[in-house]
Amino acid sequence: MVNTFIKHMKEAGWDIALNEERGSDIPKVLKGRYTNIPKEWQEFVGNIRHMVSPDEKTWFLGAEDFEVQGDKAFLWNEWELMSLDAAGDDAEWKDGIAQFWSQHLPIVMSVNGGYAYYAISMADGAVVRGAGPEFETCETVAQSFLVFMKNICQSDRITV
C-alpha cells in the first residue's frame, strides 16, 4: 500500500523525494521516545525523505524532517514545543503536554489556515487530527495508518 500511496500522491502533484536507502530504519530521534510504531508507517518513513503538497503548506514528515541538522522553518515536534512554551513555568501543564506527545507521533504538519497535524496514537495505532492553539485536543480520523493512506487515495485529497 505504501508504494501505491506514494504513486497516488505524486500523481496529485506532491513534491516527493525518496530515501536513497529505501526501507532504512526509523529515525533515531524516535527510537527512545515511541513504542508500538505501526509497521506501515515505518515502511513509509523509511522510503520517504520528504513529501510536500503543491502549495507547500502541508507535508508528511519524512526521514529528513527528523534530522536535527539543517535550517528548517518547523521542527518535527514544533507543535509540542509551542505548547511547552505556552505552558511557561507551569510544571503540571508541561508534564501533561510531554505525556501527550510521547503517546502521539506527528506524521503530517500543516500551516494551511492555521497550525494543524495528524499523528499516530501509540495506544492503538489510530491516526488522530489536532490543531492549534489546543494541540493536545485531537480526534480520531482513521483506525490505522494503512486506513489513513487508503482514505486519502479514495478521496483524492488530504484535509488538515
Describe what you observe in this structure:
With about 160 residues, this protein is of the alpha+beta class. Helix content is about 35%, strand content about 20%. The chain is globular, with a radius of gyration of 15 Å. The protein starts with a helix and ends in a 5-residue tail after the last helix. The model has no long low-confidence stretch (mean pLDDT about 90).
Describe the secondary-structure layout:
Layout: H1 2-11, E1 15-18, H2 28-31, H3 39-47, E2 48-52, E3 58-60, H4 78-87, H5 91-102, E4 104-110, E5 116-121, E6 127-131, E7 138-142, H6 145-155
Antiparallel strand pairs: 1-2, 2-3, 3-4, 4-5, 5-6, 6-7
Give a brief outline of the structure:
Helix content is 35%, strand content 22%. It has 160 residues and is α+β, with helices and mostly antiparallel strands.
Which regions have little confidence, pLDDT < 50, spanning 5+ residues?
none
User: DSSP strand (E) fraction?
Assistant: 15-25%
Mean pLDDT figure: 88
- Count helical runs: 6
CA-based shape: globular
Largest sheet: 7 strands, antiparallel
Radius of gyration over all CA atoms, rounded:
15 Å
Q: What is the N-to-C order of secondary-structure elements (H for helix, E for strand)?
A: HEHHEEHHEEEEH
Q: Please bin the fraction of helical residues.
A: 25-40%
What is the number of beta strands?
7
Order of strands across the main sheet = 1-2-3-4-5-6-7
- End-to-end Cα distance: 21 Å
Q: Give the oligomeric state.
A: single chain
Structural class: alpha+beta
